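Predict the 3D structure for this chain.
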Amino acid sequence: MGDGTMIVSFCGHGDVMESEKVRQWILAVTSDLIMNGANVFYLGGYGAFDGIAKSVLAKLCKEYPHIKSVLILPYLHRIMDETGYSYTLYPPLETVPKRFAISKRNEWIVDQSDIMVAYVTHNFGGAAKTLEYAKRKKKHIILYPQYSEKTY
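Done. Predicted structure below.
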């Protein structure tokens, strides 16, 4: 981005089978990304994967005060739990019909991101659609369970 900001976003299913393994994986990936300059992390705030990522980042934000965990809101006037995030953002979605708000928000997140951290184990649903969009946009993707340092 040129301004010293490296944005990492998370994309994953609402259900997570092996949550402790996924938690350890997210911790390893995000810790390495932080060491390599990542400082802003975008989350959607829905489902098990986002919940795990949120809790890992809440801990990392205490350890690395320069990083930010950001909840990206799909709706302007809907209550969401904002605890545990550094702040919230509402993308320019005012004109998007409500039924498309989450998918348009997810596309906006991908468009803003330098790197996607994804837990997508099947090819249907919102997470799979978001991952396909990220691939079309040629975003750098770190996909569970593949991970090795310097994959990006």
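DSSP finds four helices and six strands in the chain.
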